[in-house]
Hints:
The chain is an alpha+beta fold. The chain folds into three domains: 25-158, Nuclear Transport Factor 2, Chain: A (Roll), CATH 3.10.450; 165-312 and 334-342, Penicillin-binding protein 2a (Domain 2) (Alpha-Beta Complex), CATH 3.90.1310; 396-608, DD-peptidase/beta-lactamase superfamily (Beta-lactamase). The chain has 22 helices and 26 strands. Strands 1, 2, 3, 4, 5 and 6 form a six-stranded mixed β-sheet that branches. The radius of gyration is 39 Å and the shape is elongated. Its main location: membrane. One of its GO terms (biological process) is cell wall organization.
Amino acid sequence: MLGVVAGVALAAAAVALGWFLLREPPVPAPDPAAENLAAALGSGELAGVPMTTETSVVPEEQYEAVFAGLVESADEFEVSLAETTPVTEADDGTASFTATYAWSWPFTEDEVWEYTTDVEFTYPGADGREPGEWQAAWTPAILAPELESGERLAVERVAPRRADIVGAGGKTIVTERDVLTVGVDKSRVDADRWSATAETLADLLDFGDEARADLVARTESSGDKAFVQAIVIRVSDPDYDRQALEETPGVLLIPGTRALAPTAEFARPVLGTTGEATAEIIEESDGRVEAGDVVGVSGLQAAYDEQLGGTPGIRVTAAKADGDDEPRELWAKEAKDGETVELTLDVAMQQHAERVLAEAGEDSPSAVVAVDSTTGGVLAAASGEGSQGYNTAMLGQYPPGSTFKIASALGMLRNGLTPDSTVSCPERIVVGKEFDNVDGYPAGALGEVPFRTAFAHSCNTAMVGQHELVSQQDLHDAAASLGLGLEASRLGAAGYLGEVPAADISEADHAASFIGQARVLASPLAMATVAASAAGGSTVSPMLVVTDETEGAEAPSGTLRENEAATLRELMGGVVEEGSARDALAGVSGVVGAKTGSAEGNDGKTNVWMVAIKGDIGVAVFVEDGDLGSTTAGPIMRDFLAGN
């Protein structure tokens, strides 16, 4: 019996072993195959993935053709396995499941095209005793929703409209204006005439030597059929002979539009310019700007480029390479047009200021700035031709000379002086060094005189003589009460409001501070702010760009009181009635007061100034290299005030 049992057991074990060895291998797990395809779709390396195809298409080649346009336009895209369905097994040993893949194409940080596609996987069964492999059913729709055979994906960038810059009262300053891009079209002239054409064009455009050489060099080095841009001009610009340009062989004028001010000169140092985006601008834009885009490259155009330029839109389409049908839109992100930038500039006043400076014809940097005392709005900020494009009006840093005596006078008033207090005005005084009055100072205003007389005629020695009465901290605080030396927190643009040291200063420099020299610095904007503060009776913080931040900014920390401002206006009135501005401003109506000034500037130049109050407006005129405030800045101030 024991032998029989053992024999039966051995026979059963043999049968079981045979069955195990001869059975078909189990269906492989689906997830590794699905994950493998996800990695391949992300890399484009599809050759190692088992696939079935209905045509002779090569998946890798189709993948590359479909995605060529997207890969160039997007940052690194991602493909991930989102989910899989349960495996379905058939009686014949085959099986199937569906995998869903999530695609993400980041065109910019905020513009991401996301979608899913489904892929059918089939298991053909075992190959003898070897397990089979899962095979992905390749179709174009794996790559994008409903993509058809032969279709290619393309990315179109939808350009937004650049917004306007407007001035006071909503008057348009910068808007899209008709322009002509002028240059050499090398395809329109024989090769031996390329350089000569560039030379002729430079003559017609009145280029200087450097610009001429640059145009010729770029023409010679560019491709045989290149268009070499020389300049962009307004269609209505009378400074160029359009007929001569059009009739010159090889010169091409391409019509278009560009965001421009009314004239090429209008507030250009303030507004800045637009131009083709540089590599640096493109890199810093986080995808907002691409090569060929026109963007702000300086001034407010650059500072507010994102607001003005808006955000481009993206459109992804599918179309057959050899088809005539309209491309089929798969996804789109609408462009966001730019938003208007509002300035306080009064267009007519700015144009008048620029005209006055141009007629004055000063060769050195010059400026006219006007500030509204009631709002702080900068109504005009004009820099003369001698500034050579620099924003002297708002960024110049110069000793303000005797115009600073408005602040010095405030310090004296706060320490007990009145307009009728007697002060000494000698011909010269020594405080650390010798100080004199300007040449031509009236002898009748020397000696023991009322403070109002010394101020009206701008007696340097009388002001310096108060150096023991008024500390440097007092001077600093008085200047701050008039807006000088504060941060330009409400300006909304680059600007300099001056500097007045509060301590750590020598006796000589302290004395020189009373007449706006030594380490005291100001800009024309700062001195117009001083005049506006005196006009309005409270500390003015200038504003150029109107934003929620500038409108809602806290009042400046100055402590100017109306009664102090009234006394300053009284003293400045004496300058017009009997003092250094009498001749320059005689007969100009509405002038409340003024103050002249000159200072030893850099390179031995005499910086000359005049500030004035007319109604609610504070004005500053500055010329870097002049004679006296009354004789050089005075006529400019007269012409400006007479026209406003």
